[in-house]
Design brief:
With 258 residues, this protein is of the alpha/beta class. The chain contains 7 helices and 7 strands; from the N terminus they run βαβαβαβαβαβααβ. The protein has a 7-stranded parallel β-sheet with strand order 3-2-1-4-5-6-7, with helices on both faces.
């Protein structure tokens, strides 16, 4: 049996770090990302780096919420033959960053933006999990991880839609854990501390967020993507799926001091 990791959001940040950690441990990688042409040189370099570990690597530039393309990816994995998706990682960071309330209605969150954010950053984990399982690719010993943050229970300027999506993502992980438990499949949300990634840099006043995290964190540094990648490698490659349904902090103690 060939073990694979399907990484949703594989081209940078937590996803790219996890690709590196898993490929170095002999896990084949199927990465889903959505990037402009300008980013492709760095992504191709990442793919070459991963392949240097003598593993199979497929990266696809597509929307993770595209139903037909999702089905095509799953069919491609089935055609490889004798595949187990050992790890499914959901690390999608594409959402609307607008205030809920403003005297100028054109500046506030619109319904379509709320629905898009929830679809990409939360609900998509259900659809990938359902279809991978129904295709026989999620099997006993498989592990599902979803990237959340303290924003799931804290508020920040213009963060309302993303905060709601993170809270929903955590709830979906608990539901997946509940329903997958009898099949020996685990699902956990990973709550990273403040991490200087491209996604963070899009949040209004992110400099203040970084400054506050550095002041607050007892470890005296920010979380880095490799902190998360190491945790996924340890938990994800285990065949023990009894640890499930949790939101696991990977933040050096940052959240418990706030």
């Amino acid at each position: 049996m060939k073990d694979w990791a399907v990484i949703l959001g594989s081209s940078s940040g937590f996803g790219a770090a996890t690709c590196r950690a898993l490929a170095s441990r002999g896990i084949n990688i199927y990465g889903i990302h959505l990037d402009r042409k300008a980013a492709m040189d760095s992504i191709n370099a990442l793919v070459d780096e991963l392949k240097s570990n003598n593993v199979e690597v497929h990266f696809k530039n597509m929307s993770a919420t595209d139903v037909d393309k999702r089905k095509a990816v799953i069919e491609e994995l089935k055609l490889i033959g004798d595949v187990r998706v050992k790890i499914l990682m959901h690390s999608l960071a594409f959402g609307a960053l607008r205030p809920v309330i403003d005297m100028d209605a054109s500046k506030t969150l619109q319904q379509r933006q709320v629905e898009m954010t929830l679809d990409v950053m939360a609900s998509s984990i259900l659809y990938w999990s359902q279809e991978l399982f129904q295709a026989g690719l999620l099997q006993k010993g498989s592990q599902i991880f979803a990237m959340t943050s303290s924003g799931g229970h804290r508020q920040w300027k213009a963060y309302g839609a993303v905060s709601a999506a993170k809270a929903s993502l955590e709830s979906y992980c608990r539901q997946l854990a509940f329903e997958f438990s009898e099949h020996g499949i685990a699902a956990n949300a990973l709550q990273a501390g403040v991490t200087d990634t491209p996604a963070l840099r899009k949040i209004p006043d992110n400099e203040k967020m970084i400054e506050y995290a550095l002041m607050l964190n007892p470890g005296k540094r920010l979380t880095v993507p490799e902190d998360v990648a190491k945790t996924i490698a340890i938990l994800g490659l285990s065949e023990n799926t009894w640890l499930t349904g949790n939101t696991i902090r990977i933040d050096g103690g940052e959240d418990i001091t706030g």
